[in-house]
Amino acid sequence: MSANNGDSTGYLDMELLRFTTAGSVDDGKSTLIGRLLYDSKSIFEDQYEAIEESSRRKGDANVNLALLTDGLRAEREQGITIDVAYRYFATPKRKFIIADTPGHIQYTRNMVTGASTANLALILVDARNGVVEQTHRHTFIAALLGIPHVVFCINKMDLVDYDEKVYNKIKDQIESFSSKLDVKDIRFIPISALKGDNVVNESENTPWYKGGTLLYLLENIHIGSDHNHIDSRFPVQHVVRPHSDEYHDYRGYAGRIAGGIFKPGDTVAVLPSGFTSKIKSIEIFNEKLEEAFPPMSVTMQLEDDIDISRGDMIVRENNKPNVSQDIDVMLCWMNSKPLIPSGKYALKHTTSDARCMIKNIHYKMDINTLHRLEDDKNIGMNDIARVTLRTTKPLYYDRYSRNRITGSVILIDEATNETVAAGMII
Amino acid sequence: MRAYNLTHLKELEAEAIYVIREVAAQFENPAILFSGGKDSITVAHLARKAFFPAKVPFPLVHIDTGHNFPETIEFRDKYVKKLGVELIVGSVQESIDEGKVVEEKGYNASRNGLQTVTLLDTIEKYKFDACVGGARRDEEKARAKERFFSHRDEFGQWDPKNQRPELWNIFNGRKHFGENFRVFPISNWTEMDVWQYILMEGIELPSLYFAHEREVFVRDNVIMADCDYIQKKDSEKTFKKVVRFRTIGDMTCTGAVESEASTLETIITEVAATRQTERGTRSDDKRSEAAMEDRKKQGYF
């Protein structure tokens, strides 16, 4: 096996899977990631030697695979993870991007960030402790962020003698509370990240478990339907005008397909103007495409000269998004400065910029119990609340549950320019 | 029914092009940091695709330490012509002559650390508000925490503990006067992805990446190219060897690897089999466990 598992030919049909990891403190999340990297031969000798040396200095008996995931000096010194870190590994089937989110500090903020682009969430549960408050929290955030696949790794099975009853009890508990949430695909795997059971190699200690290993699942889970292929949405990002002799009248609309499938000849409407035209061509560089779908970055030409600029959206004539200036969102607050009721913020939605006012706070979510706190309207760091925003101009949006790109917004503090909140449109 | 699914390279390409177009849309005066290495060549290639048939709307900026491989400079000049864009060179030699930095002395002297000052001066002189670079998160542990849009204060400093959260594909490029951004479109690529993409796209590279014979010597178990910029010890004898470079930096801090790989296909096979990270031959990273983090905080890209 090789370090990157690549060769010069096999890469052309590899897919990309993005996943995020969540676990409470000491659930063994870093060990699991270290295990995946190590057993899939994605760790290089010099990296391994460096953590071997660090482990010895710290007096650890075994090489601490968790050290592989600590990036910043403060993290190594304090033995904690502060920020989302991205890790990469590949097998001949897929390339993986892991958004590794810390277990404690600013937990919600980081998990929401990591989850926003993920196809799959790995949630770790310590087999000895079973379902804890944090398990609820992680599952709720995975559901809120619309992650299509959620995999519960019941970890530390070695410490409960690989007992099927322990595993089944935890599985039942999770199934019962997650039925209240909107998660499309839930899986369970009994593992020991430390010993390697069912991570990359099948375990002899769990003969009662008939599912595949974690890596097998990551390599084979169907992700082809994770994007919306129904509602055609093309937010215009940039207008390409070459101003050259050769391309004198060229006018191309560059952007990334946010939903649906576009083909040359399709009749499209341009929002907000409402003008219709036909797609003349769809291109990437000097290649003409027969169709375009998410998440492709393309340039589109239309048959008619219409005034189109950044922030406009090209859609299929017979399938238009919602339009409103009053937007209901689940808002995750991410800044140490709390939300100001009736405050004004800058807002970004696809390629469009606007301003908004916090018009109404409906309730704050207790994400451990899933209770709605209708009397608590103090929204601070890591809080999740249902809020109505009033925007300065109409937004063309889909519900987040239908499209994660056209259904999401961020709020920016206009004084500090910091990103203060993420919103999922309801 | 066909599967509406992209391969990993096409998806990474789409993401990078999206990021580069976002730079054109959100900033007034962006530039591409171009070192002549494979990563910045890949970024320049992606920029070409992003705006085609229009030209890349940014100049290329090269921070020239004066210790580059001659092959790199030759490639750079040819490439700039091909793209038809402006080249801006920030010279470390000038920073030294102006007394802004002091050259290191002795056997391990390198201008690598001095680059930061020249880079920040160049950004200030041309008033760039965003510099697009080819850094990847898999390269180094401090870079694993880097954002696509990385905010720098008016001193060019990176504050790793206080980064803006980056969600979905919404990038926040808002800034105060005097601040700027570093933007990394190929953040999510690995060394292997870059090589496979170069092969898929038929991207031209400097000859240094391919096996060739050259005069070398060995220091601290690393094969170094013989050149006027490195002070050799008496015990360090030069000899001829067939080598290639996995990364291209200064001649003073970039080690070669013994290799017969003279085509992209054989390089990919070699990269796949290697057991050392590509920066393992970079002495600039070996100065301490947090060498990269410290340099980044000061404004290194």
Automatic annotation (TrEMBL), chain A:
<dbReference type="InterPro" id="IPR041757">
    <property type="entry name" value="CysN_GTP-bd"/>
</dbReference>
<dbReference type="InterPro" id="IPR011779">
    <property type="entry name" value="SO4_adenylTrfase_lsu"/>
</dbReference>
<dbReference type="InterPro" id="IPR044139">
    <property type="entry name" value="CysN_NoDQ_III"/>
</dbReference>
<dbReference type="InterPro" id="IPR000795">
    <property type="entry name" value="T_Tr_GTP-bd_dom"/>
</dbReference>
<dbReference type="InterPro" id="IPR031157">
    <property type="entry name" value="G_TR_CS"/>
</dbReference>
<dbReference type="InterPro" id="IPR009000">
    <property type="entry name" value="Transl_B-barrel_sf"/>
</dbReference>
<dbReference type="InterPro" id="IPR044138">
    <property type="entry name" value="CysN_II"/>
</dbReference>
<feature type="domain" description="Tr-type G">
    <location>
        <begin position="14"/>
        <end position="227"/>
    </location>
</feature>
<dbReference type="Pfam" id="PF00009">
    <property type="entry name" value="GTP_EFTU"/>
</dbReference>
<keyword id="KW-0548">Nucleotidyltransferase</keyword>
<dbReference type="GO" id="GO:0004781">
    <property type="term" value="F:sulfate adenylyltransferase (ATP) activity"/>
</dbReference>
<dbReference type="Pfam" id="PF22594">
    <property type="entry name" value="GTP-eEF1A_C"/>
</dbReference>
<dbReference type="InterPro" id="IPR054696">
    <property type="entry name" value="GTP-eEF1A_C"/>
</dbReference>
<keyword id="KW-0342">GTP-binding</keyword>
<dbReference type="InterPro" id="IPR027417">
    <property type="entry name" value="P-loop_NTPase"/>
</dbReference>
<keyword id="KW-0808">Transferase</keyword>
<dbReference type="InterPro" id="IPR005225">
    <property type="entry name" value="Small_GTP-bd"/>
</dbReference>
<dbReference type="InterPro" id="IPR009001">
    <property type="entry name" value="Transl_elong_EF1A/Init_IF2_C"/>
</dbReference>
<dbReference type="InterPro" id="IPR050100">
    <property type="entry name" value="TRAFAC_GTPase_members"/>
</dbReference>
<keyword id="KW-0067">ATP-binding</keyword>
<protein>
    <recommendedName>
        <fullName>sulfate adenylyltransferase</fullName>
        <ecNumber>2.7.7.4</ecNumber>
    </recommendedName>
</protein>
<keyword id="KW-0547">Nucleotide-binding</keyword>
UniProtKB/TrEMBL annotation, chain B:
<dbReference type="InterPro" id="IPR050128">
    <property type="entry name" value="Sulfate_adenylyltrnsfr_sub2"/>
</dbReference>
<keyword id="KW-0548">Nucleotidyltransferase</keyword>
<dbReference type="GO" id="GO:0004781">
    <property type="term" value="F:sulfate adenylyltransferase (ATP) activity"/>
</dbReference>
<keyword id="KW-0547">Nucleotide-binding</keyword>
<feature type="region of interest" description="Disordered">
    <location>
        <begin position="274"/>
        <end position="301"/>
    </location>
</feature>
<dbReference type="Pfam" id="PF01507">
    <property type="entry name" value="PAPS_reduct"/>
</dbReference>
<feature type="compositionally biased region" description="Basic and acidic residues">
    <location>
        <begin position="276"/>
        <end position="301"/>
    </location>
</feature>
<protein>
    <recommendedName>
        <fullName>Sulfate adenylyltransferase subunit 2</fullName>
        <ecNumber>2.7.7.4</ecNumber>
    </recommendedName>
</protein>
<feature type="domain" description="Phosphoadenosine phosphosulphate reductase">
    <location>
        <begin position="30"/>
        <end position="255"/>
    </location>
</feature>
<keyword id="KW-0067">ATP-binding</keyword>
<dbReference type="InterPro" id="IPR002500">
    <property type="entry name" value="PAPS_reduct_dom"/>
</dbReference>
<keyword id="KW-0808">Transferase</keyword>
<dbReference type="InterPro" id="IPR014729">
    <property type="entry name" value="Rossmann-like_a/b/a_fold"/>
</dbReference>
<comment type="similarity">
    <text>Belongs to the PAPS reductase family. CysD subfamily.</text>
</comment>
<dbReference type="InterPro" id="IPR011784">
    <property type="entry name" value="SO4_adenylTrfase_ssu"/>
</dbReference>
